[in-house]
Amino acid sequence: MSDENLLDLLQNPTSRERGFRALMEQYQAQMYWQVRRLVLDHDDTDDILQNTFIKVFKGISKFEHKSKLSTWLYRIAINESLTFLEGKKRHVAQSLDENAALAAQLIADKYFDGDAIEVKLQQAIQKLPDKQRIVFNMRYFDETPYEEMSAILDTSVGALKASYHHAVKKVENFLSEK
Amino acid sequence: MEDNSNEALKNIAPILSGIKRKQNFSVPPNYFDTLPDIVLEKAQNQPISIQKQPNTWQKIGYIIAIAASMSGVFFGWKQFQPVVSPAQPLEIVAKTPIHNENIAIFSDAAIYEYIHKNLNEVEDAALEHLLTEDDMEIAYFFDDTDITLDVNDDSL
Fold it and tell me: Which chain B residue is nearest to residue A122, measuring alpha carbons?
């Protein structure tokens, strides 16, 4: 369903619920994976995604087509994720060995089935600063065009390219360590 | 340029480029089937919190303050704006004070090569300022998209 059709349904009170279900069916999976790669844990991702869609439901009548619907949705999801990560940093004591803790968490996670190198890749990604991690995930895993990332993250294409390439070097350096 | 980028990835990050990009995470069975019902139930049972709108005098005050700030920024920018052209090497552009816009004129491969050779010089802080906290603030986002919700309301 096109964004125009979705918005028509969402902005009409009689079809709002139907439109919202259609919107979720269309976007929930891609938004879920974007958030999941940032926070890793399914339950945390679920909380963030629910908050995101509740805000979308309440705010959709004010959407003014200043951006694509998908851009708007991603921005809310990313803001929610960053807020969550900031809160987690404040409230959770930092582990002495964060790499070991993350590896143990992933190995114990029944919703993760990566091998040793994939665990190490996740460790490397988690060591990136939050915003650089967003850039890396969008570009490396989803191959999101820089122009689209620029609209979502409200950051220049040049800055995104520099950030991504710097992240690649840091990940590679981590992977090459014994 | 995208092909160049993939080729550059192989050269700069051979271990990373050798890892197959597959989905290692999964979700509980039927998760996506049940999520819309859960969200709709919560959304419809929570009250909408409306942020107080500024009155006319507050709006006028904001406009004056913004105009004054913009004037200061404009004249300051004109005073210190570096001159950059595609003819200049990336090494020069990267060292100019305002380089995030300037970098966009170079190819992925050129940026890749520069960072590869100068990783120690390109500190995190130098890149981090390009993605400032302000870019991602929820308050900024909601102002920007004209949603009138109280983002500090925990019930949201």
Answer: B24
Sequential DSSP letters for B129-141: TTS-HHHH-HHHH
Instruction: Give the list of residues 6+ apart from residue A144 with CB closer than 8 angstroms, or none.
Output: A138, A152
Low-confidence ranges of chain A (pLDDT < 50): none
Residue A69's closest CA among A110, A113, A133, A26? A26
Is A129 part of the contact surface with chain B (CB cutoff 8 Å)?
A: yes
Interchain CB contact of A86 with B (< 8 Å): no
A73 with B145: CB under 8 angstroms?
A: no
Rg, chain A, Cα only: 18
Instruction: Give A155-175 pLDDT, tens digit per residue.
Output: 999 999 999 999 999 999 999
Question: Strand, coil or helix: what is A62?
Answer: helix
The strand pairing partners of A112, in sequence order, are B25
Which secondary structure element, helix H or strand E, spans residue A90, and what is its range? helix A69-91
Instruction: Kindly give, in sequence order, each residue whose CB lies less than 8 Å from that of residue B114, ignoring residues fewer than 6 positions away.
Output: B90, B91, B94
Q: Mean pLDDT, to the nearest integer, of B117-139?
A: 46
